Structure formats: structure tokens, C-alpha cells
Fold this sequence. Notes:
Layout lengths: L1 E5 L10 H14 L3 E4 L7 H10 L3 E6 L2 H6 L1 H10 L4 E4 L10 H22 L2 E5 L14 H8 L6 E5 H6 L4 H7 L6 E4 L1 E5 L2 E5 L8 H11 L3 E4 L9 H13 L5
Helix pairs in contact: 8-9
Amino acid sequence: MIIGAQLYTVRDFTTNLTDFSETLKKVADIxxxxxxxxxxxxxxxxxxxxxxxxxxxxxxxTHTNTQRVAAxxxxxxxxxxxxxxxxxxxxxxxxxxxxEPEETFNSFVGNYLQAAKTLKALGSHFMFHNHNLEFTKSPxxxxxMEKLMESFAPGEMDFTLDTYWVQAGGGDCxxxxxxxxxxxxxxxxxDMAIAAGEQRMAPIYGGNMNFDGILNACLDAGAKYLLVxxxxxxxxxxxxxxxxxxxxxxxxxxx
Length: 255
């Protein structure tokens, strides 16, 4: 398994191409060789190809505009091919999972199933990233995560399992990695701590989650890329948080 940096962590430093370029250098200087591109400014795929090569990085996953994935899967695939990325992800289901979960779910399946099939036929992989709301129970008693697994076949849509949001949704990360075995090539590593009486995101091994067990479960589930992400660093420098997570993971033999 290869550890990487989810650039959403440092999204405030990718709002223009100059800063984006410097951010890629900083991430590479920490030691990461792999990134997920998410939350950045717009970029030309040839520009990204050059910047990745310059810094000895590869992009293994993106979060891409949901409307484009549904409407233009061929074009999205072609663009990702330029910078060598085969995993095309989205961050969530379009819609409102809080007030209209069933409508949001049904709309998602209806709008994205064909796009997922198209991407698979082209040789790309459509990837879904969970939050806690997918662990809401549907009217038939199933969790929406379970219904997503059933509605898309393996290879049509696989999962970027987010460890923090599984925990926040009341799920067990190890159990879900087992359930999704063979369908989780990419995992978001994100720890959970308690501070000031609230749940907070933390660098890996900086919180309370069972990351020894989670990492073993990732290996058993067939995960290829473990992408460090921290949406909120609570005033800390996000590059320092990425560095802390990197050090903790490399001390355990990952790289």
C-alpha cells in the first residue's frame, strides 16, 4: 500500500496555479509520492501532468465535478489519461441527504449508473467517497451505503472509504473494510479525537481510532492507496498535519 496526500487538506493553498505548484512541491518535500487532486483551482490537465512529473508525484485519484462526470464521462476519462489517473471520484451524492435521502439516492443511481458503466468500459474507475450521512437507514431498513453497494456492481463504482466519516456515522471501519473487500482501492485516512468536548479530525495516530487495526484491514481489503486527509486543522498549519501523519505512517513501515 502506498500513502498519499489528499490535497483537500491544503485546499486554501491551491486557489491559483502559482500556489498550487508550490503546494505540490511542499507535499513532495514532506516525502509523499502520491496525491489526490481535490478542492483545487481549475487547471489544464497538461499543466498538472508537468507539475506532477517535476515533483516526482503521481495523481491516483481526483474528486471531479459531479455534473461533468454524469454528462461527459468520455471527456473526463480523456483528461485523466493525460496526467495518468485511473480513479475518478466524486465527493458525495448531489442533493440533500439530510432532508431528502431517498430522493437523493434514487436520483444518484438514475443519473450516474450509465456514466459509471461508460467509465468502466473505457478503463477508468468511478469512485464514491462517503460521509456519515450514507449510514442513514432507508425506508426499507438498509443503510444507504449498503444500497450503493447493491445498485452498482464491483468495478462500475467502487469506494473511497473515509475512516473518520465511517466512525462519525456510527460504523466500524474494520467491519466496513471487510464488507467492501475488493472495492476499496483508495482509502481516506483520517483520525478522530475529542477536544473541547467535541469530535475533531486529527493527524493519523493523533486521535483515538484503532489505526493499527484499520491499516491491517486496509491491507486485507486490497487497498492500494492510503490518502491522508484532514478537512479541518483547527488553526494548525495543514502542511504540519500532513507531515505528522506521514511520519506516523512511515514509522509503521508504510511509504
